[in-house]
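job 3f2a | input accepted
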Amino acid sequence: MRAKLPALTLTVTALMFADASAQGLLNLQDPATFRQSQPLTFTVGASGGYDNLDYKLNTPGLDDIDSAFIQGGVGAFYTDADEITPWSIGTNFGVLNYLDDMGDAEDTYYNARLSFDIAHQVSQRLKFRNSFYVTYEVEPNFAIGASTALRNGQYFYGYENFAVSYAWSERLSTTTSYTLDGIRYQDDGLALTEDRLSHLIAQQFSYALSRRTQLAAEYRFRMTNFANVNNDFTSHYVLAGIDQAWSERTTGTIRAGAEFYKSDRVSETAPYAEFGLTHAASEKTNLNFYSSLGFDGAQLGDYDSRYSLRTGITGSHQFSERLTLNGGVHYVFSEFDGNGSTTEDIDEQQVNATAGLAYRIWNNVSLDAQYAYTLLTSGEEIREYDRNRVSLGLSAQF
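job 3f2a | predicted structure (398 res):
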């Protein structure tokens, strides 16, 4: 079965390259682009809706949701696109309250995030960049895959990346980076198996064929340590790729090669790949696509390893000065290798789709309608669920 995943990734990648254009070093967790300055902007919002999450089997610790809810939030964001030292900072905080009794689960949840990104050009040759964010949230992140695929209560997730780039000549450059990320769950039972910290060291060599096309070779080493269980593992990556800028509106990147995965339980080698694309079809339409393939540290439990394909696309289109459509689809396919005694091999698939409309009532006030659907199917039936969530609210910027 594992051989099917690389084939699927290569097919998706080939289609995307055939239809679109690309740029820059892929970093799925790096939101900053520094393309243009943005003054200090505050946002406030409030909404209400209905949430229905239904597990296939009734299992202690996994609670269905069938309740109306209200939520509110505030946020702030600032970007200075200085040519020498661009930087940005953003933060938000929100509260979600279910109106019906949630049984053993909490009725109220909190979401908070702080991000800070900065770059500095020391000289024509030497550049630094740092990206940092920390979140406290409840929903799983389908793109990054740090949290579990299930809705299992509040967790902290932190990410810190520092990179140094040096141009040895007009065509040859190197980038050395270090990334630290970790996750900690509030629920003691989940924290027992999921809390972990990862270190990633990467060395990239780049050769510019032209102003728009850059070849890359890269080595990475990841070390992941679990806080409470013996699931520690290391991975070595040997990768090659290309960064392409077709235009100012369309940029993309691809890396592909091998991942050498080793833990106390198993030693495996498998294909690794990642692909990212940003495409501004017009001033009114934007698309972002990502795809990654490799070993996954989330929800290992008694399984020897988890090998996952994650892919998704998000976009927005402005129909008029007042009306904007947004949406996205994320897909995760995972192969869990059992240990032969307490667990058997299983496959798991998850789809998350969202769609929304924003209608600007006044210059800075919008009416927002959102719908989200999630489906998880698994060889482990107790994990299977489907979810429908709708909301309607108001938001303002000033």
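job 3f2a | The helical segments are 4-19, 188-194.
job 3f2a | closed
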